[in-house]
TrEMBL record:
<dbReference type="GO" id="GO:0022857">
    <property type="term" value="F:transmembrane transporter activity"/>
</dbReference>
<feature type="transmembrane region" description="Helical">
    <location>
        <begin position="57"/>
        <end position="78"/>
    </location>
</feature>
<keyword id="KW-1003">Cell membrane</keyword>
<protein>
    <recommendedName>
        <fullName>Guanidinium exporter</fullName>
    </recommendedName>
</protein>
<keyword id="KW-1133">Transmembrane helix</keyword>
<keyword id="KW-0472">Membrane</keyword>
<dbReference type="InterPro" id="IPR000390">
    <property type="entry name" value="Small_drug/metabolite_transptr"/>
</dbReference>
<keyword id="KW-0812">Transmembrane</keyword>
<keyword id="KW-0614">Plasmid</keyword>
<dbReference type="InterPro" id="IPR045324">
    <property type="entry name" value="Small_multidrug_res"/>
</dbReference>
<dbReference type="Pfam" id="PF00893">
    <property type="entry name" value="Multi_Drug_Res"/>
</dbReference>
<dbReference type="InterPro" id="IPR037185">
    <property type="entry name" value="EmrE-like"/>
</dbReference>
<feature type="transmembrane region" description="Helical">
    <location>
        <begin position="84"/>
        <end position="103"/>
    </location>
</feature>
<comment type="similarity">
    <text>Belongs to the drug/metabolite transporter (DMT) superfamily. Small multidrug resistance (SMR) (TC 2.A.7.1) family. Gdx/SugE subfamily.</text>
</comment>
<feature type="transmembrane region" description="Helical">
    <location>
        <begin position="33"/>
        <end position="50"/>
    </location>
</feature>
<dbReference type="GO" id="GO:1990961">
    <property type="term" value="P:xenobiotic detoxification by transmembrane export across the plasma membrane"/>
</dbReference>
<dbReference type="GO" id="GO:0005886">
    <property type="term" value="C:plasma membrane"/>
</dbReference>
Length: 106
């Protein structure tokens, strides 16, 4: 259950990072409100998962999901460039997440 909660914490990290971008420096109220709500939910879920999972594992997985998700949103929604090195870097993040999961008992 902690892994599922951690996964959703990572997804909410992507939501708040995206909303932060859309807030245009906190000048738009709705995206700013979404950002704050998603940030709180992300932190609460991360904290809950850390009751069971080791700190290093939980934080690494959380930031990795956020980084990969923000990369995907950046390319898909904001038209950021997609080149070989960026794809390779994203694959390295995925491999790190998989290895961290495999290295954690439970």
């Amino acid at each position: 259950m902690a892994w599922l909660v951690l996964f959703f914490a990572g997804l909410f990290e992507v939501v708040w990072a995206t909303a932060m971008k859309m807030s245009e420096g906190f000048t738009k109220a709705v995206p700013t409100g979404i950002m704050v709500a998603a940030m709180l939910l992300s932190f609460i879920l991360l904290a809950w998962s850390m009751r069971v999972l080791p700190l290093g594992t939980a934080y690494t997985i959380w930031t990795g999901i956020g980084a990969l998700g923000a990369f995907i949103v950046g390319v898909a929604v904001f038209g950021e460039p997609l080149g070989f090195l960026r794809i390779f870097a994203a694959l390295l993040i995925v491999s790190g997440l998989v290895l961290m999961k495999l290295a954690t008992p439970g």
